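Example for tutorial group B:
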């Protein structure tokens, strides 16, 4: 499937090196890796690996620091990963590696109060709960009732017990919680986005992409972050992530937040087990703060993953 001409032009601007751009275009033709995340609420990575090897699966753990991340290298039947007994028991979650990175950057801990502002289908919610060891309080918010059902099913399968599900538009929920005096130690905004980074696994994105959606989403994303920062404790951290390459939805959002909050918010560099590129400071006719270089751009050709963007914000007061 061919890229729309405007999207192709934008990627050329983001990846000016011809070899780099060609690597990007080539990897879009390849199927993504089969990856899972061990659910440590129910089983250790070592025990899960032994069980799956007994089934004849070939397992690779690419990151020594994160043994829960596993790549399945076997030629399995279509859908087999999602039909296995271990999956039904909640021993693992089928999740793309780049999708696991925002929670690794968030670093939630037991006994903290954490908000997952756009939670369904639950991949990151269950990952947060595992990092928290089911201790503390995790609020998982989702606006769609249909998606809440999926979220509830996945969190139940994975044995999450420290979670409350809420149903409200994200910014409105933050305003409500602020009035009630709630505040959080950690907040994840895995924002709704144009999905440019998911072309390998979701070819429909080729057809759905348009610049008007990118610009509309940018406004929604800014509003989400503004209101979420209002309920973040001093010293607390917020991860803003998207699965898109569009600067309007990434660096522009963070630059807007820095200008609005000034010294009250600081960008921190993220420590992730994959190759990350710095955020860009110029895009077309716009210039962003040099601080956005601390954001992380994850490209498919660098890690054989999907594409992602991650920014870590700390509330200073």
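The residue assignment follows.
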């Amino acid at each position: 499937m061919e890229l729309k001409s405007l999207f192709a032009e934008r990627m050329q601007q983001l990846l000016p090196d011809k070899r780099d751009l060609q690597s990007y275009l080539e990897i879009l033709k390849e199927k993504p890796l089969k990856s899972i995340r061990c659910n440590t609420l129910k089983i250790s990575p070592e025990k899960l690996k032994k069980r799956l090897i007994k089934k004849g699966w070939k397992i690779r753990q690419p990151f020594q620091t994160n043994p829960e991340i596993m790549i399945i290298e076997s030629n399995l039947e279509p859908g087999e990963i999602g039909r296995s007994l271990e999956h039904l028991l909640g021993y693992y979650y089928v999740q793309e590696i780049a999708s696991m990175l925002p929670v690794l950057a968030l670093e939630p801990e037991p006994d903290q109060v954490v908000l997952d502002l756009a939670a369904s289908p639950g991949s990151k919610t269950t990952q947060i709960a595992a990092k928290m060891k089911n201790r503390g309080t995790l609020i998982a918010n989702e606006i769609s009732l249909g998606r809440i059902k999926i979220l509830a099913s996945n969190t139940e399968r994975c044995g999450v017990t420290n979670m409350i599900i809420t149903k409200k538009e994200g910014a409105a929920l933050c305003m409500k919680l602020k009035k009630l005096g709630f505040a959080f130690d950690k907040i994840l905004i895995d924002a709704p986005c144009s999905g440019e980074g998911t072309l390998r696994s979701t070819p429909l994105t080729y057809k759905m992409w348009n610049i008007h959606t990118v610009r509309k989403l940018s406004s929604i994303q800014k509003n989400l972050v503004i209101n979420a920062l209002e309920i973040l404790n001093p010293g607390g951290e917020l991860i803003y992530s998207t699965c898109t390459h569009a600067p309007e939805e990434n660096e522009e959002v963070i630059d807007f937040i820095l200008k609005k909050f000034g010294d009250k918010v600081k960008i921190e560099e993220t420590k992730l087990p994959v190759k990350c590129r710095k955020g860009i400071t110029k895009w077309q006719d716009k210039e962003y703060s040099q601080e956005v270089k601390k954001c992380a751009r994850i490209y498919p050709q660098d890690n054989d993953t999907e594409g992602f963007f991650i920014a870590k914000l700390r509330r200073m007061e």
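The mean pLDDT is 97. Compare this with the pattern of hydrophobic and polar residues in the output above.
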